[in-house]
Amino acid sequence: MKQxxxxxxxxxxxxxxxxxxxxxxxxxxxxxCISNQLLQILDDFSEKSAxxxxxxxxxxxxxxxxxxxxADNIYKNGEPTLITLRDLLSxxxxxxxxxxxxxxxxxxxxxxxxxxxxxxxxxxxxGSWEDLKSISKNHDLMADLVLNHISSSHPWVKEFIxxxxxxxxxxxxxxxxxxxxxxxxxxxxxxxxQINTEDGPKKVWxxxxxxxxDLNWHNPKxxxxxxxxxxxxxxxxxxxFRLDAVGFIWKESGTTCLHLPKAHSIVKILRIxxxxxxxxxxxxxxxxxxxxxxxSYLIPEDEAHMAYNFPLPPLLLEAIITSRADIxxxxxxxxxxxxxxxxxxxxxxxxxxVGLRALEGLMNDHRIKDLLINCEKRGGLVSHRRLxxxxxxxxxxxxxxxxxxxxxGRDSNRYQFERFILTQLLVMALKxxxxxxxxxxxxxxxxxxxxxxxxxxxxxxxxxFKSENLLSILNNPESNASKNLKYLCDAMDVRSELKQFxxxxxxxxxxxGRSDIVVxxxxxxxxxxxxxxxxxxxxxxxxxxDNDLPxxxxxxxxxxxxLKSTKYNWKNISLDPFQVIxxxxx
Length: 586
What we know:
Low-confidence stretches: none
Helix content: 25-40%
Largest sheet: 8 strands, parallel, barrel
Number of helices: 18
Strand order of the largest sheet: 1-3-4-9-10-11-12-16
Distance between the termini: 54 Å
Radius of gyration: 24 Å
Strand content: 15-25%
Shape: globular
């Protein structure tokens, strides 16, 4: 058995203390039992693990990027979709796929895999655990821990219906008559759903809808269930863990039931468990809420390693559609100071819609309304959530990122490619780890056909691609998908060689107060790189002024754009419509 160092011994004491704090209504004997079982599972894994202990291993650097994809975004008849995906990744996605986030692959019944019906097996069409593990040979894998809920078809629900354990203890079915008036909702569906059991009808908590039944984290054994799932994931090559909807997992009468202290304590336990299992494991929180709440999982230093940067997609979308980047510039200028060894997960498109809650306190209602209208003009839809007063409020935009980049004039394709590339390059320039959504990279338009079949608004942005058709598109250098991938793979290759783009490298916004341009400085001193983005359809002449710039020398060209190898003069930088350059002094 591997030696347990003093730091890990201290971690194990922390687990016990956290369990006592969270489960204060349980007896000391029960807490001791759960704690001992957790430690035994850790020890058993440590004995069997093939992972080598590597001290001070870097979790991420400037070469890291994440490709987000469903297990079946690309499919071929008669072949497991994970094999189809594996074979295309290295050939076409290159440096954009150092980390691959494969969205829920376990058996499920709805919501794109987020209504999990089994923790043991994958959806048959995706393939096997071995097929999943084969991808990890060339890519780091990221997967979802759906902590808040399970499918209504999960064995625990069936046991709940029969009044059997562990179903009775694992399903959250509180007294409906307690004070739930302050609960913050992400949906407009009913908070409670009725299940007919052998003991009569019972109401269960359903945060996200009737097919997603909430788990009872008041039961301390839930920690054991998810530790076992984490170990299953680790054993199959997964190192990065996305904590889906983690803010909703703890519910108490009279509260908002969102981001409660005990939810944070459970994240602390998960962090300790992962650290004891894997030196370079990454825990990522996904909380589509205002920025301060979102960052609450990073600021304590002992919770998540990374958090989804939810304000970025709507702010960038509004800026690129309107050519008005004043709010975006102000937000980047006020970038949060985060603890060492934490960072942000920067993205634009994702499998969900463009969340609007992150705009609270950042953008006024008039501009938000205009954003919704502009997206509806481009074929988008708006999903709502229900407030405690019964009112429905816009919650997210449902639109493909490629369609959102359309021009509002007669020629919808005018500058569509340039807008798209700008948004992805800006994600690369920001402090943090950049992430890219596979359908967006492939220039997927609003998937009207899928939406019309399912009625699910998010399906507008979840197109599936037949492998044979996709290969012909990717092998055509003039296709939008081919051009997107070539440009962005090349840019990511460049980024991977620049320490200035390390997720923890210094960042400064030099364009606060401007609407037409976004200028991001990475690094410091004479080695700084300046990412300059023209947010308009007009040519712009820009003069860069910064204390770290070297003295202007006499020749005409004293700066180099890493993206195009073009030389510029700091005092007269000419930018084409929606052009991006990454400049450094010669």
